[in-house]
Amino acid sequence: MKSRNFKSLLTLGLLSSLTLAACGADEGSDTASTSSGSEKDYSIVMVTDVGGVDDKSFNQSAWEGMQAWGEEQGLEEGPEGYSYIQSDEDSQFVTNLNTAVNNNFDLIYGIGYKLQPAMTDVATQNPDQNFVIIDEMIEADNVASVLFKDHEAAFLAGVAAAETTEKDHVGFIGGQESAVIDRFEAGFVAGVTAVNPDIKVDVEYAGSFGDAALGKQLAAAMYSSGADIIYHASGDTGNGVFSEAIDRMNANPDEQLWVIGVDRDQTAEGEYDGGNLTLTSTLKGVGQAVQDIANASMEGNFPGGEVSNFGLAEDSVGITEGALSEEAIKTVEDYKQQIIDGDITVPEKP
Protein backbone atom coordinates (compact mmCIF):
# COMPACT_ATOMS: atom_id res chain seq x y z
CA MET A 1 0.00 0.00 0.00
CA LYS A 2 1.29 3.45 -0.82
CA SER A 3 1.90 6.02 1.88
CA ARG A 4 1.60 9.64 0.84
CA ASN A 5 1.88 13.01 2.47
CA PHE A 6 -1.56 13.83 3.87
CA LYS A 7 -1.02 17.44 4.92
CA SER A 8 -2.91 18.90 1.96
CA LEU A 9 -6.13 17.39 3.24
CA LEU A 10 -6.16 19.61 6.28
CA THR A 11 -7.43 22.58 4.32
CA LEU A 12 -10.43 20.75 2.92
CA GLY A 13 -13.82 21.97 4.10
CA LEU A 14 -16.72 19.72 4.95
CA LEU A 15 -19.06 19.59 1.98
CA SER A 16 -22.75 18.72 2.02
CA SER A 17 -23.37 15.14 3.17
CA LEU A 18 -25.74 12.29 2.39
CA THR A 19 -26.51 9.99 5.29
CA LEU A 20 -27.84 6.54 4.51
CA ALA A 21 -29.85 5.29 7.46
CA ALA A 22 -29.85 1.61 8.28
CA CYS A 23 -33.02 1.11 6.23
CA GLY A 24 -32.24 3.73 3.55
CA ALA A 25 -32.15 7.52 3.25
CA ASP A 26 -34.95 9.75 4.50
CA GLU A 27 -38.06 9.77 2.38
CA GLY A 28 -38.14 12.55 -0.15
CA SER A 29 -34.37 13.06 -0.14
CA ASP A 30 -32.39 12.78 -3.35
CA THR A 31 -30.49 9.51 -3.05
CA ALA A 32 -29.93 9.05 -6.77
CA SER A 33 -26.79 11.13 -7.20
CA THR A 34 -24.69 9.56 -9.91
CA SER A 35 -21.25 9.92 -11.37
CA SER A 36 -20.68 12.13 -14.36
CA GLY A 37 -20.75 9.12 -16.67
CA SER A 38 -23.76 7.06 -17.64
CA GLU A 39 -22.28 3.88 -16.19
CA LYS A 40 -21.35 3.17 -12.63
CA ASP A 41 -17.60 3.52 -12.21
CA TYR A 42 -16.46 2.73 -8.70
CA SER A 43 -18.26 3.44 -5.45
CA ILE A 44 -17.08 3.62 -1.86
CA VAL A 45 -18.84 4.10 1.45
CA MET A 46 -17.81 4.54 5.06
CA VAL A 47 -19.65 3.34 8.13
CA THR A 48 -18.84 5.78 10.91
CA ASP A 49 -18.03 5.19 14.51
CA VAL A 50 -20.29 7.00 16.98
CA GLY A 51 -19.90 10.76 16.58
CA GLY A 52 -20.71 11.27 12.91
CA VAL A 53 -18.84 12.92 10.06
CA ASP A 54 -19.14 16.32 11.70
CA ASP A 55 -17.27 15.31 14.88
CA LYS A 56 -14.45 17.69 13.83
CA SER A 57 -12.06 14.82 14.52
CA PHE A 58 -11.63 11.16 13.50
CA ASN A 59 -14.77 10.48 11.47
CA GLN A 60 -14.60 13.88 9.80
CA SER A 61 -11.02 13.37 8.69
CA ALA A 62 -12.03 10.11 6.99
CA TRP A 63 -15.03 11.78 5.33
CA GLU A 64 -12.91 14.65 4.06
CA GLY A 65 -10.56 12.12 2.50
CA MET A 66 -13.50 10.40 0.84
CA GLN A 67 -14.79 13.71 -0.47
CA ALA A 68 -11.34 14.53 -1.86
CA TRP A 69 -11.24 11.14 -3.59
CA GLY A 70 -14.68 11.74 -5.11
CA GLU A 71 -13.64 15.13 -6.43
CA GLU A 72 -10.43 13.66 -7.83
CA GLN A 73 -12.43 10.98 -9.67
CA GLY A 74 -15.15 13.34 -10.87
CA LEU A 75 -17.75 11.44 -8.86
CA GLU A 76 -20.65 12.85 -6.92
CA GLU A 77 -21.89 12.04 -3.46
CA GLY A 78 -24.41 9.22 -3.60
CA PRO A 79 -24.79 5.47 -4.05
CA GLU A 80 -22.88 5.46 -7.34
CA GLY A 81 -20.00 7.55 -6.08
CA TYR A 82 -19.17 7.96 -2.41
CA SER A 83 -21.25 8.20 0.73
CA TYR A 84 -21.41 7.40 4.43
CA ILE A 85 -23.71 5.61 6.83
CA GLN A 86 -23.77 7.12 10.28
CA SER A 87 -23.74 4.99 13.40
CA ASP A 88 -25.38 6.56 16.45
CA GLU A 89 -24.63 3.60 18.70
CA ASP A 90 -22.54 0.44 18.59
CA SER A 91 -25.57 -1.81 18.06
CA GLN A 92 -26.01 -0.32 14.57
CA PHE A 93 -22.64 -1.43 13.21
CA VAL A 94 -23.75 -4.79 11.78
CA THR A 95 -26.94 -3.34 10.29
CA ASN A 96 -25.07 -0.43 8.72
CA LEU A 97 -22.39 -2.66 7.22
CA ASN A 98 -25.05 -4.92 5.75
CA THR A 99 -26.82 -1.87 4.35
CA ALA A 100 -23.57 -0.94 2.60
CA VAL A 101 -23.27 -4.45 1.18
CA ASN A 102 -26.87 -4.45 -0.02
CA ASN A 103 -26.36 -1.08 -1.75
CA ASN A 104 -23.61 -2.69 -3.85
CA PHE A 105 -20.76 -0.37 -2.95
CA ASP A 106 -17.46 -1.64 -4.33
CA LEU A 107 -15.46 -0.81 -1.21
CA ILE A 108 -16.71 -0.48 2.37
CA TYR A 109 -14.74 1.28 5.10
CA GLY A 110 -15.24 0.78 8.83
CA ILE A 111 -13.99 3.91 10.57
CA GLY A 112 -12.73 2.98 14.01
CA TYR A 113 -11.58 0.03 16.05
CA LYS A 114 -15.06 -0.46 17.53
CA LEU A 115 -16.34 -1.78 14.18
CA GLN A 116 -13.89 -4.71 14.20
CA PRO A 117 -16.24 -7.41 15.59
CA ALA A 118 -19.12 -6.37 13.33
CA MET A 119 -16.94 -6.13 10.23
CA THR A 120 -15.38 -9.51 10.96
CA ASP A 121 -18.83 -11.09 10.93
CA VAL A 122 -20.10 -9.25 7.85
CA ALA A 123 -16.86 -9.80 5.90
CA THR A 124 -17.01 -13.53 6.67
CA GLN A 125 -20.57 -13.69 5.35
CA ASN A 126 -19.66 -11.71 2.21
CA PRO A 127 -16.29 -13.06 0.98
CA ASP A 128 -16.62 -11.37 -2.43
CA GLN A 129 -17.05 -7.90 -0.90
CA ASN A 130 -13.98 -5.79 -0.14
CA PHE A 131 -13.69 -4.01 3.22
CA VAL A 132 -11.22 -1.70 4.98
CA ILE A 133 -10.93 -1.40 8.76
CA ILE A 134 -9.23 1.67 10.26
CA ASP A 135 -7.46 1.40 13.62
CA GLU A 136 -7.83 -2.37 13.93
CA MET A 137 -6.79 -5.64 12.28
CA ILE A 138 -8.92 -8.31 10.66
CA GLU A 139 -7.27 -11.40 9.23
CA ALA A 140 -9.23 -11.97 6.04
CA ASP A 141 -8.41 -11.82 2.34
CA ASN A 142 -11.27 -9.40 1.68
CA VAL A 143 -10.25 -6.93 4.41
CA ALA A 144 -7.41 -4.40 4.37
CA SER A 145 -6.31 -3.22 7.81
CA VAL A 146 -4.86 0.23 8.51
CA LEU A 147 -3.14 1.14 11.77
CA PHE A 148 -1.44 4.35 12.84
CA LYS A 149 1.32 4.95 15.37
CA ASP A 150 -0.79 7.43 17.32
CA HIS A 151 1.59 7.19 20.26
CA GLU A 152 4.34 8.85 18.23
CA ALA A 153 2.23 11.92 17.45
CA ALA A 154 0.91 11.97 21.01
CA PHE A 155 4.51 11.99 22.29
CA LEU A 156 5.14 15.17 20.33
CA ALA A 157 1.95 16.66 21.79
CA GLY A 158 3.33 15.86 25.23
CA VAL A 159 6.58 17.60 24.38
CA ALA A 160 4.62 20.63 23.16
CA ALA A 161 2.54 20.70 26.33
CA ALA A 162 5.59 20.42 28.57
CA GLU A 163 7.31 23.24 26.70
CA THR A 164 4.24 25.49 27.02
CA THR A 165 2.64 24.88 30.43
CA GLU A 166 3.05 27.68 32.96
CA LYS A 167 1.70 25.64 35.84
CA ASP A 168 3.59 22.37 35.36
CA HIS A 169 0.19 20.70 35.30
CA VAL A 170 -1.47 19.30 32.16
CA GLY A 171 -4.20 16.79 31.39
CA PHE A 172 -5.38 14.07 29.02
CA ILE A 173 -9.01 13.19 28.31
CA GLY A 174 -9.68 9.99 26.38
CA GLY A 175 -12.87 8.66 24.85
CA GLN A 176 -13.25 4.96 25.64
CA GLU A 177 -10.43 2.95 27.14
CA SER A 178 -8.96 0.69 24.45
CA ALA A 179 -5.66 -0.31 22.92
CA VAL A 180 -5.98 2.60 20.47
CA ILE A 181 -6.60 5.30 23.06
CA ASP A 182 -4.01 3.71 25.33
CA ARG A 183 -1.49 4.65 22.66
CA PHE A 184 -2.55 8.30 22.81
CA GLU A 185 -2.33 8.40 26.60
CA ALA A 186 0.99 6.54 26.79
CA GLY A 187 2.63 8.68 24.12
CA PHE A 188 1.40 11.95 25.61
CA VAL A 189 2.55 11.13 29.15
CA ALA A 190 5.92 9.91 27.85
CA GLY A 191 6.42 13.13 25.89
CA VAL A 192 5.63 15.32 28.88
CA THR A 193 7.91 13.27 31.11
CA ALA A 194 10.77 13.34 28.60
CA VAL A 195 10.88 17.12 28.85
CA ASN A 196 10.14 17.47 32.55
CA PRO A 197 9.33 14.49 34.78
CA ASP A 198 8.05 16.86 37.49
CA ILE A 199 5.06 18.01 35.46
CA LYS A 200 1.77 16.61 36.78
CA VAL A 201 -0.40 14.82 34.21
CA ASP A 202 -4.08 14.20 35.00
CA VAL A 203 -5.77 11.41 33.03
CA GLU A 204 -9.53 10.90 32.68
CA TYR A 205 -11.75 8.83 30.37
CA ALA A 206 -15.26 9.77 29.30
CA GLY A 207 -16.29 6.26 28.30
CA SER A 208 -17.71 7.71 25.09
CA PHE A 209 -16.65 9.33 21.83
CA GLY A 210 -19.97 11.14 21.47
CA ASP A 211 -20.67 12.92 24.77
CA ALA A 212 -19.64 16.57 24.50
CA ALA A 213 -21.46 17.43 27.75
CA LEU A 214 -19.35 14.93 29.68
CA GLY A 215 -16.21 16.17 27.94
CA LYS A 216 -17.03 19.68 29.15
CA GLN A 217 -17.59 18.39 32.68
CA LEU A 218 -14.30 16.51 32.78
CA ALA A 219 -12.43 19.50 31.39
CA ALA A 220 -14.00 21.79 33.99
CA ALA A 221 -12.75 19.56 36.79
CA MET A 222 -9.29 19.31 35.24
CA TYR A 223 -8.86 23.04 34.69
CA SER A 224 -10.20 23.73 38.20
CA SER A 225 -7.59 21.37 39.64
CA GLY A 226 -4.82 23.49 38.11
CA ALA A 227 -4.15 22.12 34.62
CA ASP A 228 -3.63 24.77 31.95
CA ILE A 229 -3.39 22.43 28.91
CA ILE A 230 -5.62 19.48 28.02
CA TYR A 231 -4.98 17.03 25.20
CA HIS A 232 -8.10 15.16 24.17
CA ALA A 233 -8.38 11.94 22.17
CA SER A 234 -12.12 11.59 22.38
CA GLY A 235 -13.82 12.42 19.09
CA ASP A 236 -17.00 14.44 19.49
CA THR A 237 -16.58 14.33 23.28
CA GLY A 238 -13.61 16.63 22.78
CA ASN A 239 -15.87 19.39 21.51
CA GLY A 240 -16.95 19.75 25.13
CA VAL A 241 -13.31 20.22 26.15
CA PHE A 242 -13.00 23.10 23.72
CA SER A 243 -16.31 24.54 24.91
CA GLU A 244 -15.21 24.58 28.55
CA ALA A 245 -11.86 26.17 27.73
CA ILE A 246 -13.56 28.85 25.61
CA ASP A 247 -16.07 29.66 28.36
CA ARG A 248 -13.27 30.06 30.87
CA MET A 249 -11.12 32.19 28.58
CA ASN A 250 -14.05 34.46 27.78
CA ALA A 251 -14.77 34.85 31.49
CA ASN A 252 -11.13 35.33 32.51
CA PRO A 253 -8.85 36.12 29.56
CA ASP A 254 -5.86 36.70 31.85
CA GLU A 255 -5.66 32.99 32.72
CA GLN A 256 -4.28 31.31 29.59
CA LEU A 257 -5.74 27.88 28.95
CA TRP A 258 -5.01 25.61 26.00
CA VAL A 259 -6.49 22.57 24.27
CA ILE A 260 -4.55 20.17 22.05
CA GLY A 261 -6.70 18.78 19.24
CA VAL A 262 -6.64 15.30 17.75
CA ASP A 263 -6.68 13.50 14.38
CA ARG A 264 -7.02 16.68 12.28
CA ASP A 265 -6.14 20.36 12.61
CA GLN A 266 -8.63 21.63 15.21
CA THR A 267 -7.54 25.27 15.13
CA ALA A 268 -11.06 26.38 14.18
CA GLU A 269 -12.49 24.72 17.30
CA GLY A 270 -10.29 26.91 19.50
CA GLU A 271 -11.56 30.29 18.34
CA TYR A 272 -12.97 32.53 21.06
CA ASP A 273 -13.62 36.25 21.57
CA GLY A 274 -10.01 37.02 22.47
CA GLY A 275 -8.17 34.80 20.01
CA ASN A 276 -7.53 31.08 19.67
CA LEU A 277 -6.76 28.51 22.37
CA THR A 278 -5.81 25.51 20.21
CA LEU A 279 -2.16 25.03 21.13
CA THR A 280 -1.54 22.36 18.47
CA SER A 281 -3.27 19.29 17.06
CA THR A 282 -2.02 15.78 16.46
CA LEU A 283 -2.55 14.68 12.86
CA LYS A 284 -3.48 11.29 11.52
CA GLY A 285 -3.60 10.47 7.81
CA VAL A 286 -6.93 8.67 7.85
CA GLY A 287 -8.25 10.66 4.91
CA GLN A 288 -5.19 9.94 2.80
CA ALA A 289 -5.41 6.24 3.64
CA VAL A 290 -9.02 6.28 2.44
CA GLN A 291 -7.93 7.83 -0.85
CA ASP A 292 -4.90 5.60 -1.38
CA ILE A 293 -6.77 2.35 -0.83
CA ALA A 294 -9.66 3.45 -3.03
CA ASN A 295 -7.26 4.32 -5.86
CA ALA A 296 -5.34 1.05 -5.51
CA SER A 297 -8.58 -0.92 -5.47
CA MET A 298 -9.89 0.81 -8.59
CA GLU A 299 -6.71 -0.31 -10.35
CA GLY A 300 -7.26 -3.90 -9.27
CA ASN A 301 -4.71 -3.78 -6.45
CA PHE A 302 -6.91 -4.04 -3.37
CA PRO A 303 -4.54 -4.82 -0.45
CA GLY A 304 -6.73 -7.53 1.03
CA GLY A 305 -5.19 -9.43 3.91
CA GLU A 306 -2.50 -6.77 4.39
CA VAL A 307 -1.86 -4.69 7.50
CA SER A 308 -0.38 -1.19 7.09
CA ASN A 309 1.05 0.63 10.11
CA PHE A 310 1.90 4.29 9.53
CA GLY A 311 3.88 6.62 11.79
CA LEU A 312 6.22 9.59 11.80
CA ALA A 313 8.70 7.94 9.44
CA GLU A 314 5.97 7.61 6.80
CA ASP A 315 4.82 11.22 7.42
CA SER A 316 1.38 9.83 8.25
CA VAL A 317 1.13 11.19 11.79
CA GLY A 318 2.45 14.40 13.28
CA ILE A 319 1.40 17.67 14.87
CA THR A 320 0.64 21.21 13.68
CA GLU A 321 2.74 24.21 14.61
CA GLY A 322 -0.42 25.89 15.89
CA ALA A 323 0.30 28.47 18.58
CA LEU A 324 3.59 26.88 19.65
CA SER A 325 6.57 29.10 20.35
CA GLU A 326 9.62 28.87 18.13
CA GLU A 327 11.50 27.21 20.98
CA ALA A 328 8.74 24.62 21.44
CA ILE A 329 8.65 23.89 17.71
CA LYS A 330 12.41 23.33 17.69
CA THR A 331 12.18 20.97 20.66
CA VAL A 332 9.33 19.06 19.02
CA GLU A 333 11.36 18.69 15.82
CA ASP A 334 14.36 17.42 17.77
CA TYR A 335 12.30 14.73 19.46
CA LYS A 336 10.57 13.86 16.20
CA GLN A 337 13.88 13.14 14.52
CA GLN A 338 15.02 11.02 17.46
CA ILE A 339 11.87 8.90 17.11
CA ILE A 340 12.35 8.52 13.36
CA ASP A 341 16.02 7.59 13.86
CA GLY A 342 15.07 4.95 16.41
CA ASP A 343 16.83 6.69 19.31
CA ILE A 344 13.53 6.96 21.18
CA THR A 345 10.97 4.17 21.35
CA VAL A 346 7.59 5.57 22.32
CA PRO A 347 5.52 3.33 24.62
CA GLU A 348 2.14 2.10 23.40
CA LYS A 349 0.69 1.31 26.81
CA PRO A 350 0.34 3.54 29.88
UniProtKB/TrEMBL annotation:
This is Nucleoside-binding protein. PROSITE patterns: PROKAR_LIPOPROTEIN (PS51257). Its main location: membrane. Belongs to the BMP lipoprotein family. The keyword Signal applies. It is found in: Cell membrane. GO terms for cellular component: plasma membrane. It comes from Carnobacterium alterfunditum. Residues 1-21 form the signal peptide. It comes from the Bacteria. Residues 45-348 form the ABC transporter substrate-binding protein PnrA-like domain. It holds the Pfam family Bmp. It is a lipid-anchor. Keywords: Cell membrane, Lipoprotein, Membrane, Signal.
